[in-house]
Amino acid sequence: MMTTATANIGEKMQVAAELVEIYANAAGAVYQCDRKSRLVLNFAGTLSVLKVDTFLRLKQTVDSIDLESMVVDPSRSSDFEIVSICGCDRCYVLTLTELCDLRELLAGARFTLELNRMLHECLLPITA
C-alpha cells in the first residue's frame, strides 16, 4: 500500500506505507521509518533520508544561523545560506524564507519526537 505526500503545490510523490508522518506544514513534512530507524525529510520537493543524529545536527545548524543578520545585511551574499551536514545526502542552498520554513519544520518534528519519547517513558511503567 502506498500513501501520497505533497512535494510541490499540485505535485504528488509516492511515499512507502511504512513511513509515519511525524510533522507537516506548508513547507514539507518529516516522516519516521521504524524499520530502518531513519527520518525522511520532505522539503523543497526532495526527500532526504536521515539518521536521527543527522537530523538533530541539521536542526542545530539551521537554528544557529543568524536570520536577523541576514535581514539587515544589504550585500547579495547574505540573501542565501548554504547548509551542508555530514551524513545528509544533499546540500541545501536556502533563502531567508526557506530557512524560516525549514526551521519551523525541523522544530515541529523535534517537538513531536520529544513528546513521543516522554509519553513512552510515562506509559512504560504502566504497561510493564
In short:
By secondary structure, the protein is α+β, with helices and mostly antiparallel strands. It is built from three helices and eight strands.
Please, could you describe this protein's structure?
The protein has about 130 residues and is α+β, with helices and mostly antiparallel strands. The protein has one domain (about 1-125). It has three helices and eight strands. Strands 3-4-5-6 form a four-stranded antiparallel β-sheet. It has a two-stranded antiparallel sheet with strand order 1-2. Strands 7-8 form a two-stranded antiparallel ribbon. Strand 1 and strand 2 form a beta hairpin. The longest helix has about 30 residues, at about 95-125.
Itemize the secondary structure elements and their pairings.
Layout: E1 2-8, E2 11-16, E3 19-25, E4 28-33, E5 38-43, E6 46-51, H1 52-64, H2 67-72, E7 80-84, E8 91-95, H3 96-127
Mean pLDDT: 85
Distance between the termini: 33 Å
- Strand arrangement across the biggest beta sheet: 3-4-5-6
Write down how many β-strands occur, each being a DSSP E stretch of 2 or more residues: 8
Tally of domains: 1
- Number of helices, where a helix is a run of at least 4 consecutive DSSP H or I residues: 3
What portion of residues belong to β-strands? 35-45%
**Helix and strand succession?**
EEEEEEHHEEH
